[in-house]
Amino acid sequence: MAESHELGSEQLAAALEAQDAVAVAFALRNDHVIVPVLPVDGPPQVRVFRRGDADKYMLLLFSSPATYDTMAPQETDHRVLAYGAEALRDFLRENIGVLEAVWFDVAGPHAMQATPQDVLEALELRDPEAP
């Protein structure tokens, strides 16, 4: 596995700083995003978050491990994976029914929110030049 400082996505961070939804979608399709995972034995499990007693969950995605650390400074075991477009698309397809929102760098300073469906649609866009 790559060192955590190597996992960050400068492309996603720049898109978030610009608050540019199109650039965020481009970064998700062409780079990677940091996904928190639960500290469990066995295969990695994506960590999702629930607001109070809400029925659905929020998927929190990050431009770097440091932005995840900022969100939960009291925690000491920040486990993450870098997800490319295919892995993120597969996760969303499988879990879209239980997700209410996707947040990017939720602790700021350039947080953005999208619906799970919007993120999935952005990931499924086809390049018109592709065969």
CATH homology superfamily: Uncharacterised protein PF11572, DUF3234
**What's the CATH class, please?**
Alpha Beta
Query: Poorly predicted ranges (pLDDT <50, ≥5 residues)?
Result: 1-5
- The dominant shape is globular
The residue-averaged pLDDT reads 90
Number of domains: 1
Q: What's the CATH topology name? A: Trna Endonuclease, Chain: A, domain 1
Give me the number of helical elements.
Answer: 5
Tell me what the CATH architecture is: 3-Layer(aba) Sandwich
**What is the subunit arrangement here?**
single chain
Proportion of beta-strand residues: 15-25%
Summing up helix and strand content along with how strands pair, one would put the structural category as: alpha+beta
Order of helices and strands: HHEEHEHEEH
End-to-end separation: 32 Å
Biggest pleated sheet: 3 strands, mixed
Helix content: 25-40%
For the largest sheet, list the strands in their spatial order. 2-4-5
If you compute it from the alpha carbons, what radius of gyration comes out, rounded to the nearest whole angstrom? 14 Å
Number of strands: 5
